[in-house]
UniProtKB/TrEMBL annotation:
Annotated transmembrane regions: 228-251
Keywords attached to this entry: Glycoprotein, Membrane, Signal, Transmembrane, Transmembrane helix
Organism: Salmo trutta
Leader sequence residues: 1-22
Protein name: H-2 class II histocompatibility antigen, A-Q alpha chain-like
SUPFAM superfamilies associated with the record: Immunoglobulin, MHC antigen-recognition domain
InterPro entries: Ig-like_dom, Ig-like_dom_sf, Ig-like_fold, Ig_C1-set, MHC/Immunoglobulin, MHC_I/II-like_Ag-recog
Domain Ig-like residues, every copy: 126-220
Length: 273
């Protein structure tokens, strides 16, 4: 059975260089994406860390506050005004997206179709890696993470097996997130209790792959695992979120005073498919 998907993608990247001192610069990206075959998405990133995103039904012309999700740490206070402003930005962006898709349909050459078999356009195949969230201890519940990166177009499909048998419980799949080069990344996780010699496999399917790409994780007989490296990664991630949050607050404060320390560049970036 052949599977065919139509994608019309127009992405606007708003890049701001925020100068908090003479030597430090930070990037603010406001990104919206249109997919003719699925719902539009809107988001704000600072130095690569997501601040908020909005998901909307493609048949809806209005934005509800509940449609906007802030991904800052929970201890940061988000005011009703922040949510309302984000909602307004997201709604306006959705209108722009519709206009861009209409323009794209009238352009020459026409936006082509992407096919699962017999590719007619350049696609980016995903890379993936699998690792445990915490240091592995036999018999202690943990989480396996399958990180999928550098793919275009979204989404990917991730399947898990344990000792050759398909796993259907304890699974979760994140939204897909944009990378700066126009590709995307996504996380799939599996709750598991490690037992000696168990073998877990995550298989990633994508339109650019003829066959799913697999990654294997085998539980060793000892309790030792890559815990220190994972903890280091988690600590670094939390540190970056803290920096992004601080810059977000600085950005809001300085914008109110119309500081001359900002330089803005608006770039229309279109991923051709």
């Amino acid at each position: 059975m052949s599977l065919e998907m139509n994608y019309s993608v127009i992405i606007l990247i708003l890049t701001g260089a925020v100068c908090t001192s003479a030597e430090i610069h930070h990037e603010i990206h406001f990104i919206y994406g249109c997919f003719e075959s699925s719902d539009p998405a809107v988001g704000l990133e600072i130095d690569g860390d997501e601040v908020f995103y909005g998901d909307f039904n493609k048949n809806s012309n209005t934005c509800l506050i509940a449609d906007v999700a802030f991904t800052l740490p929970k201890f940061i206070s988000i005011t009703p005004e922040d949510k309302e402003r984000a909602c307004e930005y997201a709604t306006i962006s959705r209108v722009w997206c519709k206009d861009c898709i209409a323009w794209g349909k009238q352009s020459e050459p026409k936006i082509p179709k992407i096919k699962v078999s017999g590719f007619c356009c350049p696609l980016d195949a995903p890379e993936s890696t699998i690792y445990p969230r915490d240091e592995v201890e036999l018999g202690v519940e943990n989480t396996l993470i399958c990180f999928v990166n550098d793919f275009f177009p979204p989404p990917v499909k991730v399947n898990w097996t344990k000792n050759g048998m398909e796993v259907t419980e304890g699974l979760s799949l994140s939204r897909y997130y944009p990378n700066k080069d126009g590709t995307f990344h996504q996380f799939s996780s599996l709750s598991f209790t490690p037992q000696k010699e168990d073998v877990y496999i995550c298989a990633v399917a994508h339109t650019a792959l003829k066959d799913p790409k697999t990654r294997e994780y085998k539980v060793s007989g000892s309790s030792a695992g890559p815990g220190p490296a994972v903890f280091c990664g988690v600590g670094l991630t939390l540190g970056l979120l803290g920096v992004a949050t601080g810059i977000f607050l600085i950005y809001k404060g300085k914008r109110a005073t119309e500081s001359q320390e900002y330089s803005w560049e608006v770039r229309h970036w279109t991923r051709e498919i």
